[in-house]
Design brief:
Chain lengths: 110, 110
Amino acid sequence: EKARRRRKRRRLRPCALRQVEVTVGELGLGYHSDETLLFRYCSGRCNTRRHNYDITLEHMRKAGLIDSDELVRYSPCCRPITYEKDISFLDNSSKYHTVQEVSARECRCT
Amino acid sequence: EKARRRRKRRRLRPCALRQVEVTVGELGLGYHSDETLLFRYCSGRCNTRRHNYDITLEHMRKAGLIDSDELVRYSPCCRPITYEKDISFLDNSSKYHTVQEVSARECRCT
């Protein structure tokens, strides 16, 4: 019951930048490194940011005025608008790497 | 077979501004008007615009490093970045209305 409440709260959280500490290896980019870093990402809902555009597009899709084969989005997406320029680290063979645009810097409902 | 091919082609189209001619009533904003206008919207795929951020976020979600209750997007969204400022029309009782940000002006994979 408690877990369900926590889950519900999390699902309702608005779009924001969040962070998690991970090793470089856990990023899944193919590097073997135990160095840790903060990975920042965008997460959450954008329900309060709907424009007339979104209401109209949803209506038109549901009324069949826009073909169901077309990929349209009638809710804003919580996405990065800027990224951390790059991250640098040593892999487990002491080789130096720089990778770009891994971590988010600012999020927005767009 | 032909219809299926057409469907597939449409599904693979990249993110772009498209338009459809509708009556104001068909916009679904609650106005009764037979005036027609061009409604412009964003539609299509953004697969080619994935950052390291998206690869990492997808990996971390699938590896269980980000909770499955969180709403995260690891593909860019095809969304308007600017809107037509406003549209004006007469309803069927000859009343004048202006509605803002109904139609998209520019789309982007964000």
